[in-house]
Amino acid sequence: QQQVKQSPQSLIVQKGGISIINCAYENTAFDYFPWYQQFPGKGPALLIAIRPDVSEKKEGRFTISFNKSAKQFSLHIMDSQPGDSATYFCAASIVGATNKLIFGTGTLLAVQP
Amino acid sequence: DAGITQSPRHKVTETGTPVTLRCHQTENHRYMYWYRQDPGHGLRLIHYSYGVKDTDKGEVSDGYSVSRSKTEDFLLTLESATSSQTSVYFCAISGGQGNGNYGYTFGSGTRLTVV
Predict the structure, then answer these.
(1) Per-residue pLDDT band at B102 (split at 50, 70, 90)
(2) Strands, DSSP E only, in chain A?
């Protein structure tokens, strides 16, 4: 029940296309859903996050869509660029506790020029 | 990353030896976490701390111990290193609840190889 399932494992997108990464969770107590971006040799960095009181959050080219009833959330990268090539992790936590993040297994995104 | 440093960055050690990894923060954040990253598993929580001398286990804590004697330092010890502990270890910090910012800041990682 603590798992966060992420798909796909890898993704190849053409420059200018839309990248979509999906995550699903089981624990209905989760109330914070961030996405992290990681470049090779670096630590993950917070990209965007959403709370369950909204269904969508947009920051620049990055959008989180959240479906509470389906217990799913997804990351959309519009106008994907080669610089977006990285590994993306979704995560979930219960913020009222110690905010322990449970991470998905990651998606390796390659944006081809 | 600004405000959080891990040491060493790389380490090779022999099976059966103890190893200690250090995480140091200058943000005065309450929460600190140790994760390991392995292909196909993402990031898995080893141990975390919610204050000085307050620590608890994560999902993969067997073979690891931690200590936090000061707010700024969180140490991860592999009591007797095994090959299965070869991994990249990340420390993270969080200000936690209260300021609306629940995000983690990660360190740059320690690549540990157990031979």
Answers:
(1) confident
(2) 4-7, 10-14, 19-25, 33-38, 45-50, 56-59, 62-67, 72-77, 86-92, 102-103, 107-112
